[in-house]
Specification:
heterodimer; A: alpha/beta; Rossmann fold; 9-stranded mixed beta sheet; 9 strands; 21% strand; B: alpha/beta; TIM Barrel; two-stranded antiparallel ribbon
Amino acid sequence: MPVKKSAARCSPKARTTRKTYNLQEAKVVVETKGTGKPLLILHSEDRYERDADFIEELAKKHRVIMPMMPGYNGSTLPESIRTIEDMSYLYLDLLDEMKLQDVSVIGFSVGGWLACEIATKNDTRLKKLILVDPVGIKNRGSYDRDIADIYYNQFAVVKKMKFRDVKKDPRILTEMTDDEAMDEAKAREATAKLCWDPYFHNPGLRYRLNRIKLKTLLIWGANDGIVKTSYGRGFAKKIAGSKMVTITKAGHFPHVEQPEEFMQHVRAFLR
Amino acid sequence: MEFYHFTEFAWPFLPPDDEFTSMRVNLPSSVYDPDVGADWYNMCLDQHLLADDLGINCMINEHHQTATCLNSAAPLSVAILARQTKNARLCILGNPAANLRDPVRNAEEMAMIDNISHGRLECGFVRGVPYELFGSNCNPTETGPRLWESIALMQKAWTTLDGPFNYEGRWIHKRQVNVWPRPYQAPHMPIWMTGGSDVNHATRSVENGFTFTMFLTPTEGMKKMFTGVRENLKKKGLPKTADDLFAFMPLVAVGETEEEALKFVQQVFWYVTNNKSEPQFRAPPGYVETELYANFLSGKFSGGRTDAIRTKGMEYFRENGVAVYGTPDQVVAQLKKMYKEIGGFGNLIAMLHSGDMPYKDVAKSMTLFAKEVVPQLKDMGTVSSKVGMLKDRGRPIPASKFSGRTDALEAARAKTGVEVRSPKKSKKRNTKKRAA
């Protein structure tokens, strides 16, 4: 049940509505924009999607629904949610609460992992699935590092893993305002809380990805240094009928580095 | 006042400075040479045997994946000392309880050591420095509450004499806990805790009857913390704390002359100058408070005291009370001044060795410390009249009535009816040796 309807935030383009939902122990802020077929955006842990131009673009033809994941951007992360799998049940509650039908989903990185956790459990409200450089599974052996260690490496190294062209990273840590730095700190704490161990994956998920029956597209940055394209191919192999496309000159966030090509794939798939 | 000797068992034989980026986490073990290292371990243990002979106590710590500390399993070193020393209190400071996958195993280790040493264990716990989280893989956002969960379970395990019991907590699940042996000291060994700038954590520690310890902190910071704790406890209506619930560790060097002391302290200072690490190891998300972490991300905070203090010199450390050195009388004067300025503490852990300081130098510094400094200070301060939670500790007793905490606490326990199971003969033997 929506408990609070805060003042609408006006943008020069589409109007954004914010609502806060009380779900389980969490308060979940949901931003909605545009009208049309529902499209659920599951943002990445780096949250570049929120203010991206492609969201505006999508809002022209869709009702774009972007829940702020508990722990991020004002949604609260209760002690009862310890994993992305726990999180997925909250999102299933949210889909029920919002009475969404035939909703397509785009999940970015950890958001892609979350999308898989949701879709393997109950896909009755869902239509199509787009996973953009998702994490969430481990393909290889115990001694293989499937997902690069963003905590162990120096910030500059991590940036290079995430971006083919580091100049395209919209976030420059040393130029953040105090408020931005606090948001970034809280977000990183939430990510660590949910993804530190097991490291950015759920050991059980790979064995049930076969349950995803939705039409699925995986979009991968060819130069992703966090999860390589080979990881993506392993991911795609487990979802029957899925298709994977790579975007050249792009890292872990192809929608940031090559938004036009990214949107071409998205438009064609959602059509 | 009780006195502890401390060496961190550092590995000082490092490659040239420009060939590695961090002493911790990622310095490969090829840097360690077992031929030299085997002797090095024994040299460090010998220091503690000397401490025992000199009538002071021993403190042992633990770190992982680092050249700063070869004690990657502190219970092993303490177990050796439990057997090889006779009188010293053995303080482990501490068990990394926030990072332990199996605290019950740790409870067993501590109980064994307490028995083998005839009740000489002072059992400390630490949250662990941020670097530890890379090796342990424990979640940095959870170390605080996880530390307290582990300790509470261990206390319960030590004091449950009609086990097994069931435990299904936040991080640890055990369905049949029944620790053997039970500790030698009753109800269990004294517990110590460490901390930085979090006064609530420190207050909670002392309220629980744990000795709260701070390392290498300027007098100003020590005063702020210890006074903060005392005030918080007063507000809660709890009894006045005895000094034995507070401990401090500075770098210490004593020489026959000031020049000699300076030479010794410069060797101990190796710890400070050689403590480099990569910045991201110092602040994994969730380890420090959110605001501090935000400043770390934006580059306003370097992520630790180490970088800031590395750049300042020896005199800065002496002025701030982080390094205590000089002739015996100078050291006595400095410690008395520090005791007064901080507002009282009952345990001094003296970091008398570090780096490649040779045994003969540390032995000389230790001997002067134990023979010339300790006798002048041991009657300073107060000890608790009982053990346990602060609310049960009773009135502080002047330390001057006892020959130091080792006797004081046992006498206090016996006097106040707290069960002491130490066999009379071993107590007599100990007393005799100490008197001799």
